[in-house]
Design goal:
Length: 121
Amino acid sequence: MSKKTKEERIVEQLRLLESIKGVGFLIAITLMCEIGHFTAFKKPKQLFAYFGLDPSVSQSGNFNGSRMKISKLDSRLALRVIHMVAVQSIGITKNGVPKNPVLREFYLKKCKSRKPKMVAL
C-alpha cells in the first residue's frame, strides 16, 4: 500500500469538508488555510477550542460564574466561516425545505427551550 502525497491528503481533506452541507470550495479552502492539517488536533475538543467556541470560565476562590461566554481567543476568520456554515445549515430553501433538516430541527428545539438564538446557533 503506497503512502499518499501531501497534495493528495490536502485534496482528500478538501473533499471531506465540501461533503458537509453549506461548505463550498471557498469555505473549505479558507478552513484549510486557517487550520492546516486536522491531524494537528488530537481531540475534537482541541479543534473546538481553536475556533474559540469553548466556554470561558469565570472563577475566583469559591465563586463560580454561571453566565459564561465563548472565549473567542483564536482565529476570527475561522470563527466567521464556522458561523456562516451554521447559518447555512439551519436555513431553508426558496421552496421552504430545510437545507439540513436534522440541524434545523435541533436549532428550533433549542430556540423553543428559551435559548437565545445565537446560543442555539
